[in-house]
Amino acid sequence: MRLAIERLAVERGGRPLFSGLSFTLGPGELLVVEGRNGAGKSSLLRAIAGLLHPSEGTITIQSEAIAGRTAPQPEQGPAGPLCHYLGHLDALKPTLSLARNLRLWRHVEGAPDMTIETALEMVGLDGLGSLPAAWLSAGQKRRAALARLLLVRRPLWLLDEPTAALDIAGEALLGGLIVRHLSAGGVAIVATHQPLPIPASTTLMLGAPQR
Ligand SMILES: Nc1ncnc2c1ncn2[C@@H]1O[C@H](COP(=O)(O)OP(=O)(O)OP(=O)(O)O)[C@@H](O)[C@H]1O
């Protein structure tokens, strides 16, 4: 897939966060977004996902066929169903079991690419599927959120602070999952304050330097 951001400007609460932002990403590329608290990293990810309307600029996406959807021509507009957006919250319903949470996501997000058991195994949560999500530790919840990315293949991953609550092994696991996604021709944008265990194709610094 290819993602082109041109002259993007985003405001929150009437205050400009950034403007004139342009970049392009192609298959296998990882963009790491850095910047002080409040610089607009989450807002950028949300604008690309379509959860926030940019005040100016364009987002253009060209994707291969994915989950029964073909988009041979570049499409202007947010990524929507072409992306996985992993925000600060883990998007788990606390009273449902871990496996039922993932089944729900798999149902919502389209044609499954792998079984829930395989996804749980890949994030080191095998054997925990029957537990209520509320019983999971913070790092286990984060791993469960990562499992969601694996169930249904989507070419663009937008990950906001994905290392939050992960231990060192979890960070390495995240790095491996991103590499796997990039190797399959995917694109990833990661907003983070922590160094990732894998090299970025490009780093973008938003806002003024940290004080
Ligand atoms: N719903 C909202 N309404 C108005 N302003 C908002 C809203 N959400 C965020 N903001 C403001 O937008 C600015 C950017 O927030 P954003 O979450 O994008 O920053 P960030 O770079 O991701 O920060 P952090 O590193 O703390 O996660 C902040 O000044 C914040 O106060």
From TrEMBL:
GO terms for molecular function: ATP binding; ATP hydrolysis activity; transmembrane transporter activity. It comes from Prosthecomicrobium pneumaticum. PROSITE patterns: ABC_TRANSPORTER_1, ABC_TRANSPORTER_2. Signal peptide: none annotated. This is Heme exporter protein A. One of its GO terms (biological process) is cytochrome complex assembly. Belongs to the ABC transporter superfamily. It comes from the Bacteria. Residues 3-208 form the ABC transporter domain. It holds the Pfam family ABC_tran. Keywords: ATP-binding, Cytochrome c-type biogenesis, Membrane, Nucleotide-binding, Translocase, Transport. The keyword Transport applies. InterPro entries: AAA+_ATPase (IPR003593), ABC_transporter-like_ATP-bd (IPR003439), ABC_transporter-like_CS (IPR017871), ABC_transptr_haem_export_CcmA (IPR005895), P-loop_NTPase (IPR027417). SMART domains: AAA.
